[in-house]
Amino acid sequence: MTSTTTTPKPLAGWRVLVPRGGPWGDSVAADLRAKGASPVVAAMINFAPTADAPALEAALARLADGGFDWVTVTSATTVDVLSAARAVVPPTTRIAAVGETTAAALAAAGYAVDLVPAEDNSARGLLEEWEAATDGVVPLRILTLRSEIAKPLLTEGLRRIGHQVESVVAYRTVGIPVPENIVADVRDGLVQAILVTSGSVAEQVQVQLGPIPETTLVAAIGPQTARDAREYGLRVDVIAEERTAASLIEAVAAAATGRPTP
Predict the structure, then answer these.
(1) Alpha carbon of 244 to those of 85, 121, 145, 152: distances in Å?
(2) Which residues pair with 160 in a beta bridge?
(3) Are 57 and 78 in contact (CB under 8 A)?
(4) In this model, does residue 150 exceed pLDDT 90?
(5) Residues with Cβ < 8 Å from 231, sequence gap 6 or more?
(6) Residue 19 confidence class, pLDDT cut points 50, 70, 90
(7) Which listed site, 200, 228, 229, 250, has its alpha carbon 20 to 30 Å from 44?
(8) What's the pLDDT band for 120 if we cut at 50, 70, 90?
(9) What are the residues facing 143 on neighbouring strands?
(10) How many Å apart are CA 20 and CA 203, to the nearest integer?
(11) For 57-77, how does the pLDDT look when each residue is reduced to its tens digit (9 = 90+)?
């Protein structure tokens, strides 16, 4: 007679706050359940049209007319904006994506991606690899599309190199109130981990849920998100090795197996 032992799932007994809804939130919730967690999906941010639609429309018209050598795209949400506007990127204009997730969104929308940072999937990483990727050609005409609250790191960095950069707000990020029962559960230490996927999410976590109990693990999706979170006064306990949801969940699971469940 043989006996079998079942290996406990790393997040068994853990409730994990997922700060975004939609397909992304559903996918992350499924991956968390596979590791034994009970996901708590509470969308904390949403996206709204830019407050300066004429400026965006004018920039996209110049883009279609071949007025830029490059366009930089720093989020999948920006890709949604391009798709909704039916933006045309001519063959003479190259596209730089901040990371693999944004590049995948661009490809899915039918846009060809010419540059993705090989090392650091962030605006900082894109800037670090820019000169090598463009053979040091200066000046280039570059359109940088960004969210209203995004720091102008990429735009300013490209201008310092000597490029002609036009920065346009593609969308706004707005906060969504978290249900009162979730606020209470976080306050009472009944949520063991919170996923932080962007600086705007970090801001909402701190504003709506802070101060976070010491027993609650705060996990950031990457170094830049961790820096942004700390600027908002939010403690960060672990940082994902890669800027992906899978890596973020792995970071939480690794932390869970190294400490007792609160």
Answers:
(1) 27, 10, 22, 23
(2) none
(3) no
(4) no
(5) 199
(6) very high
(7) 250
(8) confident
(9) 71, 166
(10) 14
(11) 999 999 999 999 999 999 889
Q: Tokens 């102008």 sit at which residue?
A: 152
Token pair for 141: 């005409």
Question: Going edge to edge, which strands form the sheet with 164-175?
Answer: 45-49, 164-175, 141-147, 70-73, 94-97
Please tell me whether the peptide bond between 211 and the residue prior to it is cis, using omega within 30 degrees of 0.
yes
Tokens of 43: 């969308």
Sheet holding 193-196, edge to edge: 38-41, 15-18, 193-196, 217-220, 238-239
Structure tokens at 57: 């429309």
- On whether the pTM is more than 0.90, the answer is no
- Do residues 158 and 165 touch, judged by C-beta distance below 8 A? yes
Rounded distance between C-alpha atoms, residue 74 and residue 163, angstroms = 18
Provide the 10 A C-beta neighbour count for residue 91.
7
Q: What is the DSSP string of the chain?
A: -----PPPPTTTT-EEEE---HHHHHHHHHHHHHTT-EEEE---EEEEE-S-HHHHHHHHHHHHTT--SEEEE--HHHHHHHHHTT----TTSEEEESSHHHHHHHHHTTPPP-B--SS--SHHHHHHHHHHHTTT----EEEEEEETT---HHHHHHHHHT-EEEEEEEEEEEE-PPPHHHHHHHHTT---EEEE-SHHHHHHHHHHHPSPPTTSEEEESSHHHHHHHHHTT----EE-SSSSHHHHHHHHHHHHHTS---
**CA pair distance 98, 85, nearest whole angstrom:** 21
